Amino acid sequence: MTRKGEKIKIKKINMVYNDLYKFNFIGSFKANALENNKINNAINIEKQEEIKKENIINNNKNNIEGKKQTLDEKNNKVVKSEIDSKVEEKNEEIKVDKDIKKEDVKNSIEGNENKKAFKNNDDEKINNSKNSIEKKYAIELLKNKWIKKDNKNYYYDNNGLLVKGWTFIDNNWYFFDKNTNEMRINWIEDNGNWYYLNEKGVMLKEWQKINGVWYYFLNNGQMAKGWQKVNQTWYLLDNNGAMITGWYFQGDNWYYLEDWGGMSTGWKSINDNWYFLNKNTGAMVIGWYSYGYKWYYFLENGEMARGWNGINGNWYFLNSINGDMKTGWNSDGSNWYYLNNDGSMATGWKSLDGDWYYLNHNGTMKTGWISDGLHWYYLDNSGKILHSDFYSIDGNTYYLYDNGAMATNTWFGAKYARPNGSVVDANSYISHSNLQYNLFKYMTNANNEEDVHATSIKLHGGIIYNNCTYFVSEALRRVGVNVPRSMASVLNLEKYISSRGWVRCTDFTKMKPGDILFSGQAHTYIFMGWIDNNYAYIVDNQKRTFGSVLHPRLITGYEEKYDSNSTTHFYYWNN
């Protein structure tokens, strides 16, 4: 008869050889196929050890069975001998000792039963020993082993126990469910942090592309968020861990993340526009920024400015291609501009290298005649102001002072700068007579004009209007014409000069400097020269109306603005 232990051994061995990768004990496990050779070797060794253990157990059992059989045989023999003896003695009617009682026979039988109980205890000890050996063998076999059950993976540690939580196996980290002990894959959350385990359960680190999205995992496997510096390059990951690309606003700044995720710094061209990202922080620059000894300006949206830009009340010109701020002279092809050292566009008068220039309110360089309201100036084609000499301009001669102001109503030896600035050779031929030439020359002096004007007011008792007769009479007296100081009316003045040989004329084309003009009997004044065919320069008492003693007046008609009548006739001295 085959022993029970032999059946168990054969069952185990058959299981190993019939399915090299499966073993069922308190559960099933599946050995990794890649470790097939290692398992076969281990099985051969374990099988030999098992055979040794079984032989020991069987030898012990055989010894016990032998002892049991010997004991049974002895007991049976003793009992049988005693009974036979008693029967024989009875049959032979030999007196049997009455001390041999039934109880003695019973005790003998109970002793026999105790021997049987001892045998059963030995059997139980053998079975327990066998079970203990089988359990230890199973634990040894499961130590540091993967098993697969119901398509789920588990791992037994060095003590043969199922692991849970984080476990380091063969230089990789794995995570086993804390409740079911099964190996986890894909995303897991642990203590508020996210991790990713590949299809083999291995915890991933560094850059990983998952479902088309890039993530970064720290050395401890945690999914990174926010700014991360990797290999000297900064990356930005959102709250879900996804790598950000393109423009991103954070705090008070914009950042640009390349298509591959790296934070951009320095110059960056996007959609034909240039931007500058701070070299250290990556923040998009807005406003003025100096780079490589040049200044650039970046608009509110970060775009590099080009061409003309109005900034904080000033105008600047940024290179239309490179964007660098221009200084000095700059032309747009039609006009010249001057940009100060800070780049701001110059306006008004500008002194450069000893020469003066004038820039209009729009910054364009002025050429030709220009007035500041008090004086006239002339700038040549290069924009420089002419000064300190006589210049022939547009067919006329002008004298320009050291500051460039055009000379008017003044003398340069025998030359006279008329009120319009044109210079003529001044001699008796410009007037009808020497008397009128002297009168004209005397009244070209600004000091003389003011003095005659002040005297006319005194002669009229301090009255500042209706002093024209006093003014002309005083001027004539200054050049030798003996007009009574009491002369007060226009009519009486005309009668006086007419009675002394002055010629009356109405042909205005014959009018010359020093002639005495009349507007009927309403007004009288001294002619100083034509401005054009209608207007002329005159001197009179109407400084309070025109702002100066010498001023323009409409000769050929009524001027409503000043309520001045047209000139009707004039007188000149012909001797």
Automatic annotation (TrEMBL):
InterPro entries: Cell_wall/Cho-bd_repeat. Cell wall-binding repeats lie at residues 163-182, 184-203, 204-223, 224-243, 244-263, 264-283, 285-304, 326-345, 346-365, 366-385. PROSITE patterns: CW (PS51170). Keywords: Repeat. The keyword Repeat applies. It comes from the Bacteria. This is Glucan-binding domain-containing protein (YG repeat).
